[in-house]
Amino acid sequence: MTRIKPLLACLLLLVFSLGVMGPAAALSDQQEIIDEARITFDKLTTDPEFAELPGYINRAKALLIFPTLVKGGFIIGGEGGTGVLVVRGGGRQGWSYPAFYTLAAASVGLQIGGQVSEAILTIMSQKALDAVLDNQMKFGGDVSLAAGPLGKGLGADTTTNLKADVYSFAKTSGLFGGISFEGAGILKRDEWNEAYYGKGTTPYGIVIERRVSNPNAENLRNALAPY
User: Do 194 and 214 contact (CB within 8 A), yes or no?
Assistant: First the structure.
């Protein structure tokens, strides 16, 4: 009997540890997307082929960053991936903490079939940002989308007239461009937002009201800070 009690205690400790590890594993999924989003942001903003991207970011109200978009791997016959939304704050607020979103469509239109892409979408209008927050964003309807220009470099003091609601900058398997987002929808991931920030957390509460924070997202916010 004296040996059974220590053994039982060890088993109970193991069960308790496994219970604690469940949420931690879920958290690691969200953290992986945030860390990959930072890598994508750093990669595209410093790539000479995307020399105009920083100018668009400087003028953007918000960004959607998708570190991985896969054709045919997200839903049957479609494309998609998980990314984050960050919103520029007024005054000294800086960029918000990231909210989790999914891009999904029956046909995003990868021009090179079966490839993996990463993308930054610059949200230029309040209308487009409101559509994302209302979970009603679909490209090609009321929200206009254009491919961001490549190569020339758009300075922060440019007078270029930015007419589209959203501009996309995507890199596909080592090639530049090669992806169309027409017809794609942007949908919030409530379960991921709650897993990362706490029960009841909404994208609006994260990026607009700024009710929550997570120190593990600071590397991404620091990468955004100069813009």
Answer: no
Q: In the chain, where do the E strands start and end? A: 62-71, 79-87, 99-105, 116-123, 137-138, 145-147, 166-172, 175-176, 185-188
> Greatest CA span in the chain, whole angstroms?
83
The better pLDDT of the pair 11, 219 is held by: 219
Claim: this prediction has a pTM higher than 0.90: no
Residue 12's H or E segment, with its range, is helix 4-46
- Which of 61, 10, 37, 16 lies closest to 167, judged by CA? 61
Report how far Cα 100 is from the mean position of its chain's Cα atoms: 6
| Residue 189, amino acid | R
CA 72, CA 165: separation in Å to the nearest integer? 27
Q: Give the Cβ contact number of residue 111 at 10 Å.
A: 11
Asked whether the predicted pLDDT for residue 51 surpasses 90, the reply is yes
CB 83 within 8 A of CB 65: yes
Copy the structure tokens of residue 165.
């609601």
In the block, tokens 């020399």 appear at: 51
- Report the alpha-carbon distance of residue 216 to residue 227 in Å, rounded: 20
What pLDDT score does 76 carry?
43
Nearest to 44 by CA among 150, 158, 181: 150
Report the run of H or E that residue 112 belongs to, with start and end: none
Residue 2: helix, strand or coil by DSSP? coil
Helices (H) and strands (E) in the chain, counts: 6, 9
Q: Are 170 and 179 in contact (CB under 8 A)?
A: yes
